[in-house]
Design goal:
Crp/Fnr family transcriptional regulator, cNMP-bd_dom, 195 residues, alpha+beta, 4-stranded antiparallel sheet, Jelly Rolls
Length: 195
Amino acid sequence: MISNQFSGATAFLSFVSALSLLESETTDALQSKLYQKKYRKGELILETGTVCKRIYFVNMGLVKTFFYTDTREFIMRFFAEGNMFTVLDSFVLQQPSAYAVLALEDTLITCLNYDDLDMLCRRYHSVETFYRKLLSLAAVNMMDRIGSNLEEKAQMAYHKFLKAYGPLMQRISLADVASYLGITQVSLSRIRAMK
């Protein structure tokens, strides 16, 4: 268990360091605030209507962020090993989330709480730089996701999905792919049949 904790923290810290080089004191302070959580396949990591109080890093497994309307489910993103995520608006504003997060596989996540990140940002410039860059990347990814939905036809969106998530295709259900693309499974089957 200790080796998993260490490797999870190491991967989290490597991700952070790729965005902002951390001094050794900063690394120690950040590492002391990290902890791991395990989720079983099908378990909610965050429920709709609750405040997102963590940044998550996927050590092992696969998750999706999604929301429901009266008629269907819409998937915003998938996150697999090596990805950091949060429900951005809920986390930044500390308000109830319109989205939920679900483990699609048994999943191991390294977490950092909002209050701890806030304290570390105030104390260490390099952590503040990391957080600013993480928010910037999240905003760019969200704009790209929104733009894809508004501009692209389903077939183009599917090919873009394959480019982004191709290695995960065996791990994501066709129902979830269709939901992500905003189309029916029948439409997805037609698109997949085209070569």
